[in-house]
Specification:
single chain, 216 residues, alpha+beta, two-stranded antiparallel sheet, 8 helices, 37% helix, globular
Length: 216
């Protein structure tokens, strides 16, 4: 996409559209504007009991923006049940630009010093657009999602966009809304101010769960 960089990509998010590729080996990039959009209401986030126990036990060590490119690469890599992904080289480059500009962030889950899971997304105003996640150990990406929601709530975010609605996300309280409603919420969120770094890094799982409850 010659002439299409970080600024143009942010403009797309502000309009309610986002990029994808057919396959990680396909160099083409296209923009999507779905009829329905998946979101997770931050005040309606649900943590299954078994996952809450995992978070409370601090099975994983969570960091922020420690290795953004590695998280994107892992999200793009084939895995069991996900042999094909939509993250190709042009998209990796675009999100690398957004990260350098301070608009794209990653959360990393470490287990015994090894990157075991994580997620990344885009921040614009008080909207956060979750892009992709990966897991190399059970519950690693789910724990990253819990940490993300705590961070967004602490930072005053108004919208967590998951792009699509899935059964998996539904377990966390995700819901599908129509395009018009989504754009109305988006227009409000991107005009507000939020702080992705308001929540201190290194909180224990117990403290993290308390922070989610206290800001509900």
């Amino acid at each position: 996409m010659r002439g299409f960089g970080a600024k143009e990509l942010l403009d797309c998010y502000a309009r309610g559209v986002f990029p994808m590729a057919e396959d990680r080996d396909d160099p083409r990039v296209f923009l999507l504007d779905p009829d329905e959009r998946g979101i997770i209401p931050l005040d309606g986030f649900h943590i299954p009991r078994s996952l809450a126990r995992t978070v409370r036990r601090d099975v994983f060590h969570i960091t922020v923006n420690r290795c953004f490119n590695a998280v994107v690469d892992q999200c793009a890599a084939p895995a069991r049940g996900r042999e094909h992904t939509w993250i190709n080289d042009p998209i990796r480059h675009l999100y690398g630009e957004l990260h350098e500009a301070g608009h794209a962030h990653s959360l990393e889950c470490w287990h015994d010093g090894v990157l075991a899971g994580g997620l990344y997304g885009v921040s614009l105003g008080a909207a956060f657009f979750g892009e992709s996640m990966f897991s190399r150990r059970t519950d690693a990406s789910k724990v990253a999602l819990v940490h993300l929601v705590a961070r967004l709530k602490a930072g005053g975010y108004a919208l967590l966009d998951t792009q699509f609605m899935t059964e998996h996300l539904g377990r966390f309280g995700a819901q599908a809304i129509g395009r018009d409603e989504y754009r109305a919420r988006l227009d409000v969120a991107i005009r507000e101010t939020a702080d992705f770094f308001a929540l201190p890094e290194g909180l224990s799982g117990r403290q993290l769960l308390q922070s989610i409850t206290q800001t509900s």
